[in-house]
Amino acid sequence: MIELTVNGIKHQVDVIPEMPLLWVLRDELGITSPKYGCGVAQCGACTVQIDGAAVRSCQAHIGDLAGKSVVTIEGLENGAQHPVLQAWIEHQVPQCGYCQTGQIMQAISLLELHPKPTDQDINEVMSGNLCRCGTYPRIRTAIHAAAAKMAEK
Amino acid sequence: MGDIHSISRRAFVFGSAALAGGIAFGSYSSAEPAVTSGNGNPLAAGLGPNSVSFNPWVEISPEKITLIAQHVDIGQGVGSVQPIMIAEEMDLDPGQFEIRFAGPSPAYFNSGFADDFVPFLAADQSPAAEAARAAELESLRKSGLQQTGGSSAVPDTYKKLRIAGAVARETLKVAAAKRSGVPVADIRTQSGHVILPDGTKIPYVELSAEAAKIPPVLDVKLRDPSKWRMLGKPMTRLDVRSKVMGELKFGIDLKMDGMMYASVKLNPNKGQPLKSYDASKARSMPGVKRILEVKNGVAVIATNSWYAMKAVEAIDCEWAPSTYPAEQADHWKILEASFKPEFLGKEWRKIGDVDAGLKSGRLIEAEYRAPYVAHQPLEPLNGIGIVSEAGMEIWVGHQSPQFVQSIAAAAIDLKPEQVTFHNQWTGGSFGHRLEYENVRVLAEIANQMRGTPIKLVFSREEDFLQDIPRQIAIARHKGSVDKGKIVAADLQLASTAPLKELLERSGIPSKEPDAQLASGLWNVYYDIPNFRATTYEAKGLSPCTTWRSVGASTAGFFTESFIDELIHAAGLDPLKARIEMCAVPTYRKLLETLAEISDWKGPLGNGKGRGVAFVEAFGTPTAEVVEVTMTDKGVRIDKVWVAVDVGKVVDPINFENQVQGGVVWGLGHAINCELTYAKGAVQQTNYNHHEAMRIYQCPVIEVRGLENDPKVRGVGEPPVPPAAPALANAIFAATGMRIREMPFNKFIDFV
Fold it and tell me: PROSITE patterns this protein is in (chain B) (predicted)?
């Protein structure tokens, strides 16, 4: 049994230590917002926070996560009131939506790093997150909008 | 289903024998057949007590209102706009109804294919063209073919869903009149309620039992668009919030009690069987429950998807070799040799004397190429299936519900009606979910695991290996210019045939030439006195299928690049010349609008270049200007302007998003993507080999929607085809270098 904390709740899972966090979340714990897209850190759809940092959950082995805190979009403190989620809704970023939870988790991390990101900052941090539908113009707009909203506070 | 097959084959025959025989057709206009669809109401059988359904799209029980989405949502937003079209007329607000995807039924036949399936140009509104479309519509109705594709969802449903909503509204008013004794004329509706003259509000759900006892009111009048509350105005897609919150369940997110997980390794020599395998290593791996053989490979059943994927990876397989060439170079050789009479698809259009025209003036010749590319929506192929004595139940996101039934049934000797299909929200498609690899294999696996729900998930690598790609194509174009004018254009291409092959795999083979190969080739609206468009269909190559914008994704690149070459040779301005040559007034207006929004002023200089392209696909004319800058790191795509005419923009924000996405799709694959075969398998097996566009390469994209077209058109695909030629033409303007082959990054670097 491996113990793990997700969104503040402790879980015990009976899997091998090499199993990626992504699949533990999805198949063992039923938390489906992190998505399987590539399995090799090429698409970013599985992005979650581990101890506050954005991580590709397909690359994090469960055996290495003892004592660490995992947060998925379901566990964000402000929920739907989070300024990044608000911006994503207001600017209607998603099309199919499959990559968007990963995009949002990455964008939250970007805004912690760069509270007022330039387009270049956005390119550098967000280029690991693939969107096959091509919502990039709206992702960029939503990040700038969220940054402005967060700066007001 | 046998009937559907034989009849729908007729529906797919491009052109109508009946029309050629001179039979006159009455005009199709009345509301009644559109709503009842002439094909019954599949909701009637499943209604609970005191519930009512007025037509195949509206269901009301004492507890809730459910609106049925017949087209599946593949990211294009129809999971939202379909119910909103009903809700607009029904006086419902978002939040007052649930949405369910339609099950398979001929009631949901796609009327939106009628325009594209006849051998007339989209801009041709002549009586003969309209009569052919009317005949095609009746043929589609008889076929009962239910399918999402061809940018047809809004054209198909724009009228019928509003009628469906109006019928529900009027019938509920009659029910309220009967209950209250108040004349119907004095009753109105608002926000999910019938409202009596004294202000009494009756929720729709309270009238369901009484409404069920009266025949639906079919004589309804649709509201004028000026009265719309939601349509045509900036509105929030119904699925945006749940997608942002991570709450929306895609097909891959479903879970069932007692479910087991499966993953597969299939013969990468597409369509060929498994010869033998050694699973000794996989058997003892963690979580593995069973190893199964399927027709073209092996499957592992395990306690989660990852265990299944890891174990199936460890199985050694021996495959039957491919029937197409093992190596990519030989694919090109076959294609190069296909410009011969025995491979003729069709001469689609001939104007003037092309041979004489080519001899006058300056001759220009050019060859263009487009490779195989993959669809690769981010949600990999998946599905849940359970097989029992009674049949199979399947949960999968798919564009062709009836063919899911027939394909799954054929795989395990069932009758199609024994397969119960539940469509799902999908993480994209781009044509991928018109194919059946996951459906067939899931049926085979679940049949060997009877009674246990099986969730199949393809690994990304397996998805790439089994992805039936976009067509491969070569164009050999000739033209001539004289005295500052284009005198002749002789457009020829050889290609594999995507739609024809899809039809064959769907069980409805067609002997007709593949009309998709003509899209972007024959529908050229420039006034060129000598013009010919001819397609050749190569044989013996990789299977191929429809990929976002299908034929026009390749032919649009060839044609609009070549037109640009002719315009340049004639010494003309690329955009002004297109405007002057444009023979269709609404299309000319589109090009003029593009010049206006892009502030087109000719050459830019200073390492900058602008290119333009104009393609009509699926009836929707789209024109784009791309601006690039040459930098020391390569070409940077700065900005794209797009003008699209869809007749009516029903969902403006989503419209803009779709157009931007189409441009990103067109540019990204033109720059970065190809699939190549080696030893019978594609060499690209994950996104690092087939990236398309990431945010750092994405330009600013400015969109203008026009409403001049006399018909309502779709927008999911048409913005794709002009993107590649507009970019190639921009690179030419900036550098003098003509790139005539995709992907462009083989010839020039991009930032």
Answer: TAT
